[in-house]
Structures are given as structure tokens and as C-alpha cells.
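Propose amino acids for all 276 sites.
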């Protein structure tokens, strides 16, 4: 990822963006994981200048030396602060799994920071406060058992799954993410949003069943929609072109309507991602 420049990494940028797509990764996820999305952007968003960005949480990727955080709000505050320093553009938040919780807190802070959220996408995620969600305490599992579950879920490169040194290096940040996510989902305080929310769930997801998409509509005063996709928990990496094309149909008219002076932001953070 190059030089460390905060929590928001620019994967691909344009001179005058009409839309900024910010990806909030899953537990243990890195900004680099979404660099492959850039090749699908031009075809998905013809005629729209799109900046693709991805969040790099503390303790992840090139921030490995930093202590991971177990507070979703603290992670979101840092991201919003970085966003205000980027050129103004409508904001499409794409949160995958744990990233959906981060996306909620980013969206809640955006109006006060002068940022316009065009759409919040919650992918493979339970909605905060959903009473149907079974209680989970996976962050308390022993290292070996937690690692086995994460490997079985499909979010870890099989070539690295048997490397004990890799496990010991990345597992603390993954455990912190899971703890933060579980705490956030079980919070008794209701999450209140005013942006449109789109939910992506996969038929083969062992963690988030399709009916879990329903509760998201109760969190926002905006419009809510659902897309039932093929694949499993990490469906976002199966066919990015199809996913991005669907998102473009939902947000492009709105992106063109957003004034370029929306937030008066300053210079961009530049740190092109490379696919890991």
C-alpha cells in the first residue's frame, strides 16, 4: 500500500469525482483486498467519475504495528476525519460483514462533517439490534478454534491457513474486529440512520441467513432495498463486475445531482492499493 496515510486509502482516483465508493472491509480484512474492483469500475459506472477508496483499520495491513481497536465508533471517527480531507463527492458506503457496522457509524457522523451519503450498502451482515440474531461470543474462543472457524468461512487464503506464524500475526486484529462487531450488534441503543440502505445477502452464507436482511429497513428513515445473491459469506469477491453494475444503477442519477462544493474538502490522500 505504500506510505501510511491514515485510514482511507485511494485505490483509484479522478480529478473531479462525481462519486466516492468507500469499501469498509470485513473482520481481519485489508484495503488491498478490494484493489481488484478497480478494473470493473469503468464499465459499471460509464459517464461517472468514481473514486474507489478502501478503509485500512488500525492493526491491519500496513498498520499492523498499531494496536487494533475494539470500538466501532472510534474506527468510524478516524475514517470520517480522513474523508473530510478528500475532494468533495457523493459517498457510497459499502460495508462487508463487520464493515457494515463501521459503515453505520460513518454514515451517522457524515452529516455533521458536511459529507453526503448517497447510499449505505450492508453486505453479509446482521443489522444492529436485530432480536433474531443468535448470541455469539466467538472473540472468546481459543486461538486454534477461532482460526479454524475463520478458515472454514473462506476469508483466509488456503495457502496461508496452515502457517502458524501468519495466524499469530493477524489473529489479534481479527479477534478485536470480531469483539467490536459482536458488541455493536448487541448494543441496546437503537441505530438511527437517515440515508438510503441497500442490503446484499447470499443464499449460501452460513453466518447471515437471507431473512436477516429485513431488519435493516427499521434502522433508517430513508429507502431500503434487498438483493439476494448467489455465493456464500464472501460473495463480494465472486463477481465484482456484476455487483458494481447493480450498485451503479442504484446511485448514478443521485451522484450526478450532487453539487461539487458539498463538503469543501481539501487535498486527497494518495496511496494506490495493490492486490494481495
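Proposal:
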Amino acid at each position: 500500500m505504500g506510505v501510511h496515510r491514515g485510514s482511507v486509502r485511494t485505490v483509484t482516483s479522478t480529478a473531479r469525482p462525481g462519486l466516492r465508493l468507500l469499501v469498509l472491509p470485513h473482520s481481519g480484512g485489508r484495503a488491498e483486498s478490494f484493489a481488484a474492483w478497480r478494473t470493473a469500475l469503468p464499465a459499471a459506472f460509464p459517464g461517472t467519475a468514481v473514486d474507489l477508496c478502501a478503509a485500512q483499520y488500525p492493526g491491519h495491513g500496513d498498520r499492523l504495528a498499531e494496536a487494533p481497536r475494539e470500538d466501532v465508533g472510534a474506527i468510524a471517527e478516524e475514517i470520517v476525519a480522513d474523508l473530510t480531507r478528500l475532494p468533495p463527492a457523493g459517498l457510497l458506503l459499502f460495508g462487508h460483514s463487520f464493515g457494515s457496522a463501521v459503515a453505520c457509524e460513518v454514515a451517522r457522523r457524515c452529516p455533521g462533517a458536511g459529507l453526503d451519503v448517497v447510499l449505505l450498502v450492508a453486505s453479509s451482515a446482521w443489522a444492529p439490534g436485530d432480536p433474531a440474531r443468535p448470541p455469539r461470543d466467538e472473540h472468546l474462543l481459543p486461538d486454534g478454534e477461532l482460526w479454524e472457524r475463520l478458515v472454514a468461512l473462506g476469508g483466509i487464503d488456503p495457502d496461508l491457513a496452515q502457517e502458524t506464524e501468519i495466524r499469530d500475526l493477524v489473529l489479534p486484529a481479527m479477534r478485536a474486529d470480531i469483539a467490536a462487531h459482536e458488541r455493536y450488534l448487541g448494543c441496546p441503543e437503537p441505530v438511527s440512520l437517515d440515508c438510503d440502505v441497500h442490503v446484499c445477502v447470499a443464499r449460501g452464507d452460513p453466518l447471515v441467513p437471507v431473512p436477516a436482511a429485513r431488519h435493516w429497513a427499521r434502522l433508517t428513515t430513508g429507502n431500503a432495498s434487498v438483493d439476494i445473491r448467489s455465493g456464500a459469506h464472501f460473495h463480494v469477491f465472486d463477481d465484482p463486475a456484476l455487483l458494481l453494475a447493480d450498485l451503479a444503477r442504484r446511485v448514478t442519477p443521485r451522484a450526478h445531482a450532487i453539487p461539487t462544493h458539498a463538503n469543501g474538502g481539501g487535498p486527497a490522500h494518495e496511496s494506490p492499493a495493490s492486490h494481495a
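The longest helix spans residues 164-185. Residues 256-276 have pLDDT under 50 and may be disordered.
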